[in-house]
Design a protein that fits this description.
The chain is an alpha/beta fold. Helix content is about 30%, strand content about 15%. The longest helix has 15 residues, at about 245-260. It is globular, with a radius of gyration of 20 Å. The termini are close together.
Length: about 375
């Protein structure tokens, strides 16, 4: 998300951390960006999205990662070894994500510790059920934690995020978030994905649209630093446009949530919600055939390394296998040009503007003004 893609009414710090174009010009990041702009490969990506496992303890019917779930995970020894490899390669930040639920991997505490001690910043995207198991590591060593909640009440949560357990995990997640909020050194976010279900005639039968305001208010009460709203995507990552009435319902709640913003709590809206809000074409045309950002970020999963999270599980976009070789060996052999954004990435991509900016660098006739480092999660 860039500043033009995100409506943010928080402090300068929050805005800077969301500015994916501005982040390219940080002093320690720019050398890799400049190399990529001129057709050279950096020795390592700046950021790695790491799926420790494909297991998940929820059974969400609309899970966009359903095709890659429950197909194994990195072994306990291999993932710790990989953490050391990433730390030694020059990778600046690692996002523990999925695929599956990252905290289900039994070695995840060791992975966080290895990366943190090596100076690699760690981000975490989680469903929140297992935060308590690794509260010490997350609170002390993780730069930011984003919890996918997508509801404000147990009834709605259980409808869209059913657990594989016999009882609802919604109260547990809230308790975990409260506990983390009390101890965290990094940021804590409450993520809300707008979801609807329709019958054969197209009429809405189930929705969470009505709980946006209540969820945002709950996020602040829990001690979260931000509340993030995202639009529903189809299985191919295209936005799903909504009726004017549904858009108005969400916007009215967002307006009320903005009144809750202060120096410690901020409201974020994703680029895909902006696309839906303004009824933009779900297709985002791209005039370039090479993704420069694929040289700066990569996605490592138990079943392959892929050019980016959008293409997780896509065999065409697979660039290596971390089980067969070291990270350095994999990266040296990786061909990130296997994906052509012009043909293969017609959905709204959060890093589209970053790609445009990198491509324009060689044509600039003025020196680049660099920024002091503030966030490696480009």
């Amino acid at each position: 998300m860039t500043l033009t893609q995100v409506r943010t009414l928080g402090t300068d710090r929050i805005e800077r951390n969301l500015d994916l174009v501005g982040k390219l010009y940080q002093r320690s990041i720019y050398p890799s960006v400049e190399a990529v702009a001129h057709g050279r490969r950096p020795a390592a990506p700046v950021v790695v999205d790491l799926d420790p496992t494909t297991l998940c303890d929820l059974a969400c019917p609309e899970c966009i990662s359903a095709g890659v779930l429950h197909k194994g995970g990195l072994s306990r020894d291999r993932i710790v070894e990989l953490a050391h490899e990433l730390a030694g390669s020059g990778v600046r930040a690692v996002i523990l994500i999925g695929g599956g639920e990252p905290l289900m991997h039994r070695s995840i505490g060791d992975v966080i510790t290895v990366l943190h001690q090596a100076g690699v910043q760690v981000g975490l995207v989680t469903n929140g059920t297992l935060i308590g198991r690794y509260l010490d590591e997350i609170a002390e060593m993780v730069s930011w934690t984003r919890v996918s909640v997508d509801a404000a009440t147990m009834e709605t949560y259980d409808r869209f995020r059913p657990s594989r357990r016999k009882t609802s995990v919604f109260p547990l997640i809230l308790d975990n978030m409260r506990a983390l909020a009390e101890r965290k050194r990094g940021a804590l976010g409450y993520s809300f994905l707008l979801m609807q279900r329709r019958d054969a005639a197209g009429a809405v039968t189930e929705t969470n649209y009505h709980e946006v305001y209540a969820a945002g208010r709950l996020a602040k009460e829990l001690g979260c630093d931000y509340f993030e709203l995202k639009a529903m995507l189809d299985e191919n990552h295209f936005t799903v446009n909504q009726s004017p009435a549904d858009i108005a319902l969400v916007e009215e709640q967002l307006a009320r949530l903005r009144e809750l913003e202060d120096g410690s709590f901020h409201l974020l809206g994703s680029s895909n919600w902006e696309a839906v809000h303004h009824d933009l074409d779900p297709v985002q045309p791209k005039e370039y055939s090479t993704c420069h950002v694929a040289e700066l970020r990569t996605t490592v999963t138990p079943n392959g390394v892929y050019v980016c999270p959008y293409h997780r599980g896509n065999e065409k976009a697979k660039i290596g296998d971390i089980n067969a070789m070291s990270f350095a060996e994999m990266w040296a052999k990786a061909d990130t040009t296997v994906v052509n954004p012009r043909a293969d990435c017609r959905f709204h991509c959060a890093r589209h503007r970053a790609n445009l900016d990198i491509a324009a660098l060689p044509r600039r006739g003025r020196p680049v003004e660099l920024l002091d480092d503030f966030d490696p999660f480009i």
